[in-house]
Each structure stands twice: as structure tokens, then as C-alpha cells.
UniProtKB/TrEMBL annotation:
Domain spans labelled HD: 75-219
The species this protein was found in: Mycoplana ramosa (Mycoplana bullata)
UniProt entry keywords in alphabetical sequence: Hydrolase
Key word Hydrolase present: yes
Protein family according to the UniProt entry: Belongs to the dGTPase family. Type 2 subfamily.
Name by which UniProt lists this protein: Deoxyguanosinetriphosphate triphosphohydrolase-like protein
Amino acid sequence: MTLDRHALGFGAGQRAIYAADPWSSRGRLFEESQSPTRSDFQRDRDRIVHTTAFRRLKHKTQVFIAADGDHYRTRLTHTIEVAQIARALARALKLDEDLAEGVALVHDFGHTPFGHTGEDALHEVLAPYGGFDHNAQSLRIVTKLERRYAEFDGLNLTWESLEGLVKHNGPLLTPQGEGTRGPVPQPILDYCALHDLELASYASLEAQVAAIADDIAYNTHDIDDGLRAGYLTLEMLEEVPFLVGLMAEVRRLYPGLEPSRFTHEIMRRQITAMVEDVIGYAQAALREVRPESVDDVRQAGRVLATFSDSFAATDKAIKKMLFSRIYRHPEVMRVRADAAAIVTDLFHAFMNDPQQMRGHYWVDHIREMPEAAKARHVGDYLAGMTDNYAIDTHRRLFDRTPELR
């Protein structure tokens, strides 16, 4: 994909006509006066960073649990890497960097302890009550569960930030009103009844670059962490022709380089190549579509910031390798089974005796709640737990807790 370097927006005041305008936001559910020193999107980003949900990400699993070592990515370090890539893409494409960064920073708020394992386990026990979806849970956190402000629950983020959170992976509804990936989670429908996020349209380019930044980040850092853990070897990377080329280049330029530096040189080239591919694809797409506003981007009928066809194939090959070599590694699967058991045990324990929940999650009227409302309340409590807190709580309530190491 050809990249037009002369069109890159690296200077101040370079926001494009198709970018989201921070001074013309569609507003917040609860009206607030504007700040004289910060745009609405800056305020959103700042509110996101100061949440308890953001701080909890430091003790939530990405792939390898905390007990595996201090140098593996957590949800927090993953999120920071996604935000850095999203901001770089936004700057190059002359978008609003604060909105792109904010969407990247909030995109994993709803993840449970123990990564996707915890999400799968919580979805299973909540299936009779509507199931669990981490994206919908992120929305619940920023619109309801964070309790920081006197005048409203949640963070009262702008429409654009919430749209990006909910739709960064594409529309949730077809133009005919059917779910694009199955039924739309009820928490999203409930919020849209109050503040319509237009689920049948695409999101802004700022949200689109946050979404592809997520792929770039974990495709790269899961390889790095896999090599550190010993689940991957450099020979295994040869399953992906793109990585073969990167390794050959590093060996040619730096023969005999020590392993840790060799890995880093591969990873930095991988990120650069993927970022430049997305920029090149987006530039070409923008020339085709010629959007004159952010709403034109939403109505374009396609994603405008993503991989080219060739890099989409590379992305697929990397994910296939990571799935077979890491995500389904026998040791990872053992830990996943034990982690799922912890989440399942805790759900049933809290449903049987809600008083075991601590802090503001214990409410006097919980016993009188309808079963579905009580289950959702328990699900909120569990989803907010860090890995460490879930393990410690299980040890408090049960005679035996699996060792996740």
C-alpha cells in the first residue's frame, strides 16, 4: 500500500475536514458547560484516566497472569500501547488525537479478571440473564458504575467517545435493524434508548484507528511475551512469511545480536510496517470516498482505517500462529480452566449469599431484587475484580483455590 508522506499531519492545527470536531460535539447525556482550557474530548480522556476502572487494569490479565512475571503485559500496559499507536495514527491522518486516545484508553474497561477466560466463564453463568459482553460492560462502567461526580453516575462522556467505545469494531446493526454480530447486548440497547448512538452506522475515524491499533498492539506484544515465556521460538515465527522477512533484515544489519535486542528489533519493525500500511490504506480510502465531514465517514458504508488486503492476510497468519502456539498451549489451557473455575465459584457464592460482596456492591435491598437484576449486580462486581482480588476472595470463601502458575 503506497503511503503519501507529504499528506501526513504532523503539525499543530492540522485537523482534517473529516475529523471529529472537539468544539462541536453532539454533547453529553447530562448537559455541562464547556471548559475554557480543554476541549470536550480532552476532558473525556482525562476523566477516563482518573477512574478506578483504569487503575484496576494494571492487575488484570492480558495473556499471562501476574504470577508469571513482572515484564508481561497486563490490560493496563496493553491499553497504553494501544493508545500510543492510536494517537500516532490519528496524528498522521489529521484526526482528533484526544478522541482517538480516549477511545483506546477506555476500550478494555469491561474486561473481567483473567482475560477472555474470565469473560467466557461470566458469560456462561449469566447466560440465563442475558449473558456478558465486555464491550457492553465498558459502557455500563462509564455510564453507570463509576461513582465520582455529584450530579450523575458514570463519567458523562461525550456522544462521540461513547460511540467510539460501542462501535469501534463496526456497526452493531444492519440498516434493516438486524444484529451484525448476533443480538445487541441489552445494556447497549438500554443506553441507546436514552442517548442514541446510531448503532447502524460506522464510527468516526478516531474510533476506527483505536480499533486497528488494538490489533497492531496485541499482534506484536503477544509475540514478544510468547518468546519471553518460551511458548514461542524464533523458528515458530517462520510460519509467517512477513516475520521471516523482518528477521532476515535484522540478522543482515546486526549479525550476532543478543536475543532480547533481536526480538525488540523485530517488534519495532512489525509495528512500523503495520502502522504505515494502515495509514496508506486510509489515505487511499479517503481519496475514494472524499468525506467532507465526520458524518460522511459514518455513512461511508465501510471501514476507512484498516489493513490493506496483503496485511490483512499477514494479520490473519499471525493470529493463527498465536492461537495455536500460545492461546491453546496446554499450560495456558490448564491455567484457563482453573481461572474459569474461580469466576464460576465466586458467582454462585455471591448469588447464594450476596452479603459476601464487599464495599458498595453490598446493598440492603439486594435480596429483594428480581433474580436477573441480582445476577447482573453480581456480574458487575465480578467483572470489576482484578486477578489478585478474585484469587484472594476465592481463598476467603473456599477451602481450596487453584494455583494459577
